[in-house]
UniProtKB/TrEMBL annotation:
Keywords: Oxidoreductase. This is 3alpha(Or 20beta)-hydroxysteroid dehydrogenase. InterPro entries: NAD(P)-bd_dom_sf, Sc_DH/Rdtase_CS, SDR_fam. Pfam families: adh_short_C2. Belongs to the short-chain dehydrogenases/reductases (SDR) family. PROSITE patterns: ADH_SHORT (PS00061). One of its GO terms (molecular function) is oxidoreductase activity.
Amino acid sequence: MSRLKDKVAIVTGGAQGIGEATVRAFIAEGASVVLTDLNEKKGVELVKELGQNAFFIKHDVSNTEDWERVISQTEAQFGYVNVLVNNAGIFGPVAKVVDLDKKDYLNAININQNSVFYGMKYTVPSMLNAGKGSIVNLSSMAGIAAVNGFPSVAYVSAKFAVRGMSKAVAVEYADNNIRVNSVHPGFIKTPMSAAAFTEDDVMKELASKYVPLKRWSEASEVASLNVFLASDESAYITGTELIIDGGVTAS
């Protein structure tokens, strides 16, 4: 298949979860992919498996110097960037506002929100040189509505910000044919969710209670949406949010 043929993509947090699934889907559709992650072992192993169209860079998404290096190395390896998937993030901390430590709050904002700003800031110039581009910013259903029972003001505020930033940059660069959209997953089976919810019975209970479709999503289902947004099939879609949550925010 070749829906992403000749496209150069960067996927942050690309060594596991939604990021890994997205990398695999992009490679299958013909893209050249730079996957970045702090987990060097998994990143290197994945590149060895996927072959010459995949390239790994160890990357702290909250570090601007790292972003500059990622763009430089991507252009040297594959050329100008056509697609950016800002996927890296953390779930915690889970605490009500009065119990939330300032340091933990700012850390969550830095990783989940500021990293998306940095990604767009340092990737857009490469996309301008490429002539067009698509940015996919991973938010969450928590960027649409706070879910009762999951008190995490740090996570929710960051994911709402990602949604807003996506709209702002979409408007700023529409004349340059650079599209920006946010993706809002719900309950997804990933290493991050597995760490937060360690018992299968708990996960089933959450799905039964909150999800109209009564199940958790697979990472590959989110990856399929990312492929669509990265491809020219979505050429008229920009500045919007695409929700993939099994109906949670509709009910």
